[in-house]
Amino acid sequence: MKIVVTSIFVEDQDKALKFYSETLGFVKKHDVPAGKFRWITLVSPEDQDGTELLLEPNNHPAAREYQKKIIAEGIPATMFGVEDIHKEYKRLIEKGVKFTMEPTEMGEVTIAVFDDTCGNLIQIVQK
């Protein structure tokens, strides 16, 4: 068994697609109609056959409440791995991304947290 798709709730699919592709650099894999929303997935440019990230609308009240509560507590919705966190931090700052935590060493890893502008905090990690 392996993880094929993981999802993240977003307030606006178009805004999220733009942020995750243009700002973060993920590659759109699927964008198909799914009722009044779309099935939009992205993948890492380094692993285009790997796990897909689904940009899932937060239209359900439970999804909105979950999203509100974890962001209020400062809890990242998900984590992405990076090769060089300081380089990635600088690149994202230059693109206007707002960080809530600068790169910080935590034992054997270094982490940073940013706002994805779509209702989530995202953690990046360098092992």
Describe this structure as you would to a colleague:
The protein has about 130 residues and is an alpha/beta fold. It has one domain (about 5-125): 2,3-Dihydroxybiphenyl 1,2-Dioxygenase, domain 1. Helix content is about 25%, strand content about 40%. It is built from three helices and eight strands; from the N terminus they run βαβββαβαβββ. The strands form two sheets. It has a four-stranded mixed β-sheet. A hairpin with a 5-residue loop joins β7 (about 110-115) and β8. The longest helix has 12 residues, at about 60-70. The two termini are about 25 Å apart. The relative contact order is 0.19.
Whole-number tally of structural domains: 1
Tertiary shape:
globular
Q: Please indicate the percent range of residues in DSSP E strands (runs of 2 or more).
A: 35-45%
How many helix segments?
3
Secondary-structure element string: EHEEEHEHEEE
Which strand order does the major sheet show? 1-4-3-2
CATH fold-type name:
2,3-Dihydroxybiphenyl 1,2-Dioxygenase, domain 1
CATH class: Alpha Beta
CATH superfamily: 2,3-Dihydroxybiphenyl 1,2-Dioxygenase, domain 1
Largest sheet: 4 strands, mixed
The assigned structural class equals: alpha/beta
Gyration radius (Cα, Å) is 15 Å
The counted number of beta strands is 8
Protein name: VOC family protein
Organism: Halalkalibacter kiskunsagensis
Domain VOC: 1-127
Pfam families: Glyoxalase
